[in-house]
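Summary for the steering committee. One of the milestones for this cycle was to obtain a three-dimensional model of the protein with magnesium ion bound, which we needed before selecting residues for the alanine scan. The sequence and ligand used are listed below.
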Amino acid sequence: MSQQQSDAERHERRMTRKKQVVDERIAAASEERGVLILMKGNGKGKSSSGFGTMTRALGHGMRCAVIQFIKGRRETGEYRFFREHERVDFHVMGHGFSWETRDLEQDRAAAKQAWQLAEQLLKDESYNFLLFDELSYMIKYGHLEAERVAHAIAERPHHQNVIVTGRTMARELQVIADTISVINDERHAFRLGVKAQAGIEY
Ligand code: ATP
Ligand code: MG
């Protein structure tokens, strides 16, 4: 047998075994329900993953909503793009928290108001996908109670999917999450001196 043939056979055996394992896992994962996904860590890719997943839901005709809990410094590309979409309700938290405001009372009131809206969405079965972008900071800075947030998310409609982004995540959210991904900061162009740019950073 030539080297090429034996390589091909070995490859085929490996792939057959692999397929068997994958098929068994697929058969075992038979539950159908919405999931809570947490995107955390210091690297770039958390919010963009949330919006990327939302495009999948939209592609399947699903109804979606976004709440951005940190006020942007300028209009983001995602806001400009998705606010036009008939099946996306896009909310950017009013006034409130950004790195530039320092009014604790105002920040807290804005966070509470945005969370009230989130609780309404979490009771509305017509939404299949909710993105709570940068929600974790509201908990970290004490504007929202982790337990209240976790409770509302845990009680949501059975089929509803939720993604929460933010660098750090409260333990209460991690306990009820189905998927947790950590985006590591191995390198970032900003530290190489590259200016934040439209279409990449915002
Ligand atoms: P993105 O929105 O690009 O997916 P992100 O949601 O993971 O990023 P955030 O922590 O929300 O990251 O930061 C928001 C902004 O800061 C984005 O413009 C992002 O490109 C930038 N950024 C993210 N991580 C880093 C980093 N490690 N160093 C510098 N800038 C970063
Ligand atoms: Mg983000």
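Key point for the committee: Residues 3-28 form the longest helix (26 residues).
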